[in-house]
Amino acid sequence: MSDLRHDHDASWRAELDRAAEAAGLSRREMLRLGLFGAAAVLGQHWSVRALAAATAGGAEAFHFVVTGDTQSHPLRIRAIAEAIARDVPAFVVHTGDLCNNSNHPDLLEEQFFGPWRDLLRKTAVWPARGNHEYGIQPFADLFRLSPQRLWYSFDYANLHVVILDQWSVKGSDTMEPERMAAMAEWLDGDLAAVQGKADWIIVAGHQPMFNVAGHGSTWGHERILPLLYKHGVDLVLAGHSHLYERFVPIGPRGAKPIHFIVAGGGGGTNYASVPSPILLRSHAAAHYSLYRIEGDRLDLTVKGSGGTIIDTMTLTKTGGALAPAVLAAAIEPEDAMRLLKPYKGLAVNVTERPVAGRTMTCTLSPRRFPPGSRVTFSTDPSSSWSVEETTFEAPPQEPLDAAAVSAASPPEDDAPAPWLLRVTPPDGVLLAGHGFSPDLSASIRLDYRGRTWFCPSVPVGLHELSVRRLAPQPTVVDVPAASEALVAQLAGLSRGGDQAVNIRLDAWEGVPFLHLPSTGAASRTMKLAWARDALYGIVAVEQGAIHVDDELPWNADSLEINLEPDAERRTRLLSRGPTVKLFLWPQPGGDGGPASFKRSTGRLAGGSVKAHWRKTPGGYVMEFRISARALTVADDGAGTPETGARPDAQPLAAGRTLGLDLVLRHDGETVEQFADPRGLRSTWGSPIYWGQIRLSSQ
Length: 698
Prior knowledge:
- The chain is of the alpha+beta class and 698 residues long.
- The strands form eight sheets. It has a seven-stranded mixed β-sheet. It has a seven-stranded mixed β-sheet with strand order 4-5-6-7-9-8-10, covered by helices on one side. Strands 25, 30, 31, 33, 36, 37 and 38 form a seven-stranded mixed β-sheet that branches.
- Strand 4 (152-156) and strand 5 form a beta hairpin.
- Mean pLDDT is 82; it is low at 1-13, 22-58, 404-413 and 634-647.
């Protein structure tokens, strides 16, 4: 691994050793406990220390932090942890996903214990189990919890905090009914026991109960949510979706409403925010939530790693009751479900390709909006498109349960008549990914049950059916057969090994530079050739300094390769099925050797991809080999679910066509790309916009 991923200045294992010593463990006991046990001791030590400082009464002010999803990006995780440490919280509630896989000690070191080392010296951490805490036992061992009950609660001053578990025994799956019933019974008793004793009650877990963007979770509505209203819970905090969302107060008539907040900004790859009528604030960036409680007052300040204030909220109570303004702003859970996602994934169908200045008709389904609502579309002031102002009435409908409301698509035979929108595209319009380029957006006013919600800018995308119908066939580019001399040179790539292959540019002199449909001209850097056993390629890059990012290669210097083994299957908008996405990039340091490799989607048999690189005065040269095994299509159902690859490779042959998207990047910026010209802006995960190559006999 590069130094970039290990920028901590000391090993966390040394910190665990010192903590174990402070806890009175012998060396033998330390060895017996092992890695997870030592971490558990350290976590126990922090918890005891922090709780010992808790005040007995509720008048003294204190503050704490909520964050989660410390995944993937160590530098970002560290920046958030350092910002939290500057606020010196009494404790931290972690809403789960300590790292990408907490069963792996190296990832725990890289994404949690390393970046959080200084913070963990100062405060207690109370974690929930996320879907990336695979399995019960490792998480239970790490934090000294019972494997039979990973839910728990604690008190601090006048605050009661409940931490819920939401996953199966194996993790990442829905919790088993019997475990859910056991947790619900415990929760009912736990919350009943603190009535009249705690001024504030907060419940935290990984999956949100209300969530628009990201995973869109609506966990716990049947068994858990009624208990929270029954016992007057104030806030419900979650992660899972890597962004910030704060909703309007939600509660049934006659009950105290709850403030639901998604706070998954601890370091994971951020999800894009999506507008919703019931969102008070959303933000798609790394962040943490700082809570301050002083008696009957609670203040929330949401901060970015640099100290930027993203959101604030203040709640006050009089005699245990919330302010009248909070109660007046509340909506009922059933209405919240109906209003959760009317704008998310708002998509239209079109029957013609957009032409600048020519008005076209789009259709969309009323099902997206709450039954009985009134919806007005007009032009987004910031959009280059024009939208003819139109008002529609969503037909009334029988009440739907949560599952029905959140369903992705209704039955076609029960669908009401579509709504028709007239829009006028600007100059330079084309289809790109799920939408248009430039983007189409609309201003939407939604009237429902006597209240009005307005959003000035709602993105409008395309239904997949329209994209399939309107996407043009790509230009087919011929790739020559490799000469014997070239195959002999590239034999080293077939064998692999740790030594640099002698990359000779003269062996490629007879191979033309790859024609790029995206520009209509020949590449300046990329060449491809094929043989029976593999597809071969070379990039010769003149760009100066080499910058790499092992976690996010697309943000640095890298070659992205997207392959569809059977180009005739290119009717998909998304890269489901037999597609492969991978990244190759030079390893940091030295003058050459094996290149770094990362598979993003699809499955590859061992040894399917080989690459070596060599530093040059102006940049680098990199050769790669993708074996025929990786490009084998299983049409008999015997292949892997994602790529169709089988152990026995089918030799490549002249005349075969492959779907291809090559993207060469420098510092994250696209240098050259092999793709359909209309998909240049947005080809990621969309084979329908990739280019095609034909294996030539020449």
